[in-house]
Specification:
The complex is a heterodimer of chains A (about 400) and B (about 325). Chain A is an alpha/beta fold. Chain A contains 15 helices and twelve strands. The chains are: A alpha/beta (about 400), B mainly alpha (about 325).
Chain lengths: ~400, ~325
């Protein structure tokens, strides 16, 4: 896409910590066009915030190692000198954060913080900046902005504070707005208002928005495209229709199954994704999702999947080793409420460490899907549910892991 | 706010009366020399001692003595007279206060000017050789007892006994109005001694605060706005990190104005601290009582000042 506003190619961010190297972002690529909305979805620790902070150079430092390319209007944000990048921050690219109370300085008036953003990028008088601050507060729907502009953040309610944060981000009419969990710290009713506000402002001002969240429900309404991140990688990317209509990755299925829905049958339980996100220091071998994937086969513990077109369409890509036909069958099965064991049989899955110990041995024996029953039994007993296999202890160390 | 301040002041007065009562009790309960005998001299007859006892009011019970003392303060603003020199305690304190003020103000300026930049630079250059050196030196100064450092400086630099006689040593203090030049040079060593420990404490405190603040979300916001790193550090970081330091500074000033006993004693500066120290040695109770009250008053006043000031430094703090 030549008209992309921001084009990220093979971005890698690693931090050197006392425990080892944390591979926070591991080779992600995405593009966002002017005026479009991209949702980046994943659990905490999936690298979604780090990748967006890197856009503004906020992860730069002696402990971070950043590779790849981030072209914003043709300029690479990764190699751009600090001074140049500073002119883009808060000006062409602005950011809003999760918790507006801690993200606003407690000692300065809201107006002063707004004016600071304006005056650092524009040579305007104090009174002009203040007038603009009042205008911005009005734009984001804060009542009585003339009075509010002189108040401190602690005098605002949670939703008001987030509106003020948004006003601050919009101060210089950015081309790209990055919203990092903008609604997570807010009440549910306020969440909807803030999302509606963002959508409305986008329509009026025409900026592109990257919205980062752990909640697929948040992006369903406003995103054009969605990228699902897991353990520092994008595991699935497609249009919102594709992700919600025909999701391809087991992790995406997990995220979708854990959204409460009004139209689901009464009494139906939300299905959590078992286990925990993997350590970004000692990552699992093979597919990073395999320790938690119900449909894992032995080969998946060795082979590292690459993003490939999911369905012939080039836009919708997924990094999953299951065959496309199998994935479609499982997703249909999930939607029609088939029991997990039947779904696992569809996938031709090996005994999985993600299944709680003791729940399935008899079923495993009878379904006869294992090609090497004795070996996989051994693996299961060594890795109980949710445990992460450090590469050195794993019997399978694929060539990809030595990278 | 006004109501709050008035309430604090009234409580402060109650506290001062309690401090005074406690000092009385300590003086009576703990063994001290008989002030009347001390005053009468070596070979005084019992009759003279008895006469002096009555004259000083020491024949009354502790309650009557305390009541008389309080009456003197509240109705005549009279803090009693020295057992020895007969001079009013208030006059003695007024004479000594300028020396203590000079010592305190100079030392405060010195340690603020040294400690705060060192703390900020150390935090910014965290983990570098500069930071480690500064914090190592600071730790050394924190660990040094004031009297020991004072003797060390005198041993090296005092004009009378020093190896490198550069500066006036002990007992060289003269008033500012008498001779400003000499006033200044005579105070350099005491200022250094007082400031060394405090500068070390302040730099470590500020460094710790600033490092914590620089990890706050609003610092990330400030960077995301496109502010220069200098502005992020000074306008957003230091502004928050300095607030607790200002609090500690107020309390420290309050403490020092009550007399830097060790420093004043080693350098023989005739300030409140030395006055108090000598009065305790000589069982000159009215002076002890007067200096203790003065020290308590400074601490209480500075506490109020700090709390009120905090409301201006941190808009989230409100008093009612």
């Amino acid at each position: 896409m030549s008209e992309a506003l921001l084009s990220v190619q093979e971005l890698r961010v690693a931090f050197h910590s006392d425990d080892g190297i944390v591979h926070a972002v591991d080779g992600i690529s995405y593009e966002i066009g002017a005026g479009k909305t991209l949702g980046i979805v994943g659990e905490s620790g999936s690298g979604k915030s780090v990748s967006s902070l890197t856009t503004l150079g906020l992860t730069r430092g002696s402990r971070a190692q950043i590779e790849g390319q981030m072209l914003f209007e043709g300029r690479d944000l990764i190699t751009l000198p600090d001074d140049e990048l500073r002119k883009i921050r808060g000006n062409d690219i602005a950011m809003i954060f999760q918790d507006p109370l801690s993200a606003l300085h407690p000692f300065y008036r809201v107006g002063a913080q707004l004016m600071e953003t304006i005056q650092v990028h524009r040579h305007v008088s104090k009174s002009a900046a203040k007038a603009r601050a009042v205008e911005l507060l009005e734009l984001v729907g804060i009542p009585d902005p003339k009075r509010r502009v002189d108040q401190y953040p602690h005098e605002f309610s949670g939703g008001m504070r987030q509106r003020a944060m948004i006003a601050m981000a919009l101060a210089n009419e950015p081309k790209l707005l990055i919203a990092d969990e903008p609604t997570t710290a807010l009440d549910v009713t306020v969440q909807a208002q803030i999302l509606a506000l963002l959508a409305d402002l986008q329509e009026r001002l025409g900026m592109a928005i990257i919205i980062i969240t752990h909640d697929l429900g948040v992006v369903a309404e406003i995103a054009d495209e969605i990228a699902v991140m897991y353990a520092g990688r994008i595991v699935e990317r497609g249009t919102t229709q594709e992700i919600f209509g025909a999701p391809q990755h087991p992790y995406t299925w997990g995220l979708l199954s854990s959204i409460p829905r009004l139209d689901s049958p009464r009494g139906e339980e939300l299905v959590p994704i078992s286990g925990r996100p993997p350590s970004l220091i000692n990552r699992p071998s093979g597919c990073y999702f395999h320790p938690r994937c119900p449909y894992v086969r032995d080969a998946h513990k060795r082979v590292d999947p690459r993003l490939e077109p999911a369905n012939g369409s080039t836009g919708h890509v997924v990094a999953c080793l299951l065959e496309h036909a199998v994935r479609d069958r499982i997703w249909d099965g999930i939607q029609s409420g088939r029991d997990p064991e039947a779904l696992r049989r569809m996938a031709d899955a090996s005994p999985s460490p993600a299944i709680p110990a003791g729940a399935t041995p008899a079923a495993e024996e009878s379904d006869g899907t294992d090609s090497e029953p004795s070996e996989s039994r051994l693996v299961e007993s060594e890795s109980p549910a949710g445990e992460r296999l450090p590469p050195t202890e794993s019997p399978y160390i694929g060539p990809e892991e030595t990278r | 706010m006004a109501r709050y301040i008035i309430r604090r002041i009234l409580w402060g007065i109650v506290l001062l009366i309690l401090v005074s009562a406690l000092t009385f009790v300590i003086f009576v309960v703990f063994p001290t020399a008989n002030p009347a005998q001390l005053r009468a001299g070596r070979n005084a007859s019992p009759a003279i001692i008895r006469h002096i006892t009555v004259e000083l009011g020491l024949n009354h019970s502790i309650f009557v003595q305390f009541w008389d003392y309080m009456k003197g303060i509240f109705f005549h603003f009279n803090f009693g007279y020295s057992y020895y020199s007969q001079q009013p305690v208030l006059t003695l304190i007024a004479d000594r206060l300028p020396a203590t003020l000079s010592l305190t103000i100079g030392a405060v300026i010195l340690w603020v000017v040294a400690g705060i930049p060192i703390g900020i630079i150390s935090a910014i250059k965290r983990g570098t050789f500069l930071d480690r050196t500064a914090m190592g030196v600071a730790l050394t100064f924190v660990s040094m007892p004031v009297f020991w450092l004072a003797l060390l400086l005198l041993y090296f630099f005092a004009s009378d006994i020093g190896k490198f006689p550069l500066l006036p040593g002990a007992n060289s203090y003269v008033g500012l109005t008498a001779d400003p030049g000499k006033w200044f040079t005579s105070l350099i060593l005491p200022w250094l001694v007082l400031a060394a420990t405090q500068a070390a404490i302040y730099s470590r405190l500020l460094r710790g605060n600033l490092l914590e603040v620089m990890g706050e979300d609003y610092i990330r916001t400030a960077r995301a706005k496109g502010l220069s790193e200098r502005r992020v550090i000074w306008h957003h970081g230091v502004r928050s990190a300095i607030t607790p330091v200002v609090t500690v500074l107020g309390l420290d000033i309050g403490g020092l104005l009550g007399g830097a006993v060790l420093t004043e004693t080693v350098f023989e500066i005739h300030g409140i601290g030395l006055l108090n120290f000598n009065a305790i040695n000589e069982s000159d109770f009215p002076i002890v009582q007067g200096t203790v009250l003065l020290a308590a008053m400074f601490i209480i006043v500075m506490n109020i000042v700090v709390d009120v000031g905090y409301a201006y430094l941190d808009p989230r703090v409100k008093y009612s």
